[in-house]
Design goal:
Strand content: under 5%
Shape: elongated
Number of helices: 12
Oligomer: single chain
Order of helices and strands: HHHHHHHHHHHH
Structural class: mainly alpha
Distance between the termini: 82 Å
Helix content: over 70%
Radius of gyration: 36 Å
Mean pLDDT: 78
Number of domains: 3
Length: 257
């Protein structure tokens, strides 16, 4: 019983479950008794091996082999519960834990491989979508096709340089106001990106389409982009701008100042 009690205390010590006084007493014993220290190290190694394994249901074959080894071990020394704490049992338990860890490793590799395949498929799909969008935006004979191309871009969760450049070019150069405005709306979805923010600011000084000018001013104000204050002042003073554009620029100055 003393050995079983010691083993139980060692397990609780490893798990951090002993009281302060019990911990001090056991550590004193560990420092003085090499046999107790050896038993502690064996228990700690087995428990570490168990922790490294995942909770997998062992196969019927594995369970049978373990039970057979355990039965043979008990036949060699049928002294009750103490058999479970012999070093040979530690080796058996550790072996089972390592086998389970091996199964878990194989499962993890399989999951990683499947995730990599899914990521590759997603990248291919995104590349195809980007090519479709660019082809639609370049269709100069159909404004509706270009609008559909912008619509494709608006469904994207992120945009790379190719997508951003295509949308900026459309916003600045497309002959159709509706397409230009749609491109601006698409870029607004990515306005947190530094390159997109820079392109929007730059566009304000070159835009001549009143509808896009007003929408762009409103977007930059929502973005709290104070760097456009001088551009807004010039728009207010420019007599060629429509009154609606000048009024929107003035309101933007008031909100950003």
């Amino acid at each position: 019983m003393e050995r079983e009690k010691l083993e139980s205390q060692l397990i609780d010590y490893i798990d951090g479950k002993l009281s302060e006084s019990e911990r001090i007493a056991l550590e004193h014993q560990l420092s003085r008794d090499p046999e107790v220290l050896r038993l502690y190290e064996q228990l700690r190694e087995v428990m570490r091996a168990m922790d490294r394994s995942v909770s997998l249901e062992p196969s019927a074959g594995m369970r049978t082999r373990f039970e057979r080894m355990l039965a043979e071990e008990m036949k060699q020394r049928p002294t009750g519960r103490q058999v479970f704490f012999r070093p040979s049992f530690y080796r058996i338990a550790a072996a089972v834990a390592l086998v389970a860890a091996g199964l878990a490793g194989g499962y993890w590799i399989s999951v990683q491989q499947r995730q990599n395949e899914e990521l590759l498929a997603l990248r291919k799909e995104m590349e195809s979508t980007k090519q479709l969008m660019q082809a639609m935006l370049q269709n100069q004979s159909s404004a509706s096709q270009r609008l559909q191309g912008v619509s494709v871009a608006m469904q994207m969760n992120s945009a790379d340089d190719d997508v951003v450049n295509a949308l900026v070019r459309t916003m600045n150069e497309d002959p159709n106001s509706n397409v230009r405005l749609a491109a601006l709306d698409a870029l607004a979805n990515f306005s947190q990106e530094p390159d997109v923010r820079k392109a929007l600011v730059s566009s304000l000084s070159t835009q001549t389409d009143p509808i896009v000018q007003i929408a762009l001013i409103q977007l930059l104000v929502r973005m709290k982009e104070k760097s456009v204050l001088k551009d807004l002042e010039r728009m207010v003073e420019d007599e060629t701008n429509l009154k609606a554009v000048k009024d929107e620029a003035y309101n933007g100055i008031l909100k950003l100042s």
